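Below is our example:
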Amino acid sequence: MDLRQLMAGSIAGTLSTAVCHPIDLVKVRLQTDARADFRSRSFLHTFKVLKELKSLYGIRAWYQGWGANVAGAMSSWGLYFMFYEYLKANYQGELGYLGSSALAGGMTQLITNPIWLAKTRLCVQVPDGNPENYKGLVDCLRRTFNREGTRGIYRGLIPGLMSTSHGAIHFYFYEHLKMRLRSHIQNDSAYFFICSASSKAVALGITYPLQVIRSRVQVTNLNTISSVIKSFIHKEGLLTGAYKGLGPTLLRVLPSTCITLITYENVIKLLK
């Protein structure tokens, strides 16, 4: 395994997460809001939520859960690349690229689920100075474990594991589009951008409800995928509930991807 790629990937993912955290926070808050509100899927609603948070609690409210989000990104990127490179090098014949990617994603999710649970809970709490609020990642994990045990810190694991299909779907459509569009688009930059953005949109459209379900399971009294789906149907409408927070998610994808790629390439150059 090339440690330069591991380090560059971790730094790039961490920086991207740190910069885009306010939009991610809005996404999580909307995902866990069970009110029937179509506006929650729009881009403009993202800025409305940020404005309301700033007016009520100050700009610090934009960075609730920031530390947990960065810790999750750093550990996830690092572990994923470590597992993926190992599986690809030793079990490529048995697993293939998609199998290696899916297994690496599942192993990473098993280890990092407690961090992502803490991030979700920190993002949705009201920053009003309540002494009962979690004080950070470690405090959230400690109190969750004391109250709910191991099952508590692993809430949302099943939809999280199912969400690893996102990468496989993205990869499949990306390769398919590259073969179909190569003869039609001569500019390499436009070619790769269209293939990447289109395949990402397809993967997101298919797997996004799993993100919403995981967030709901982590912060509400709904413990199963079926109970969350029933809540969608009876309270919000299936599509409205399943795609809550899609607007800020789409808004986050482009800057996040640009920051990640630019940082990755520059760190690789510095480490040569």
About this structure: The radius of gyration is 19 Å. DSSP finds ten helices and no strands in the chain. The CA atoms of residues 75 and 112 lie 7 Å apart.
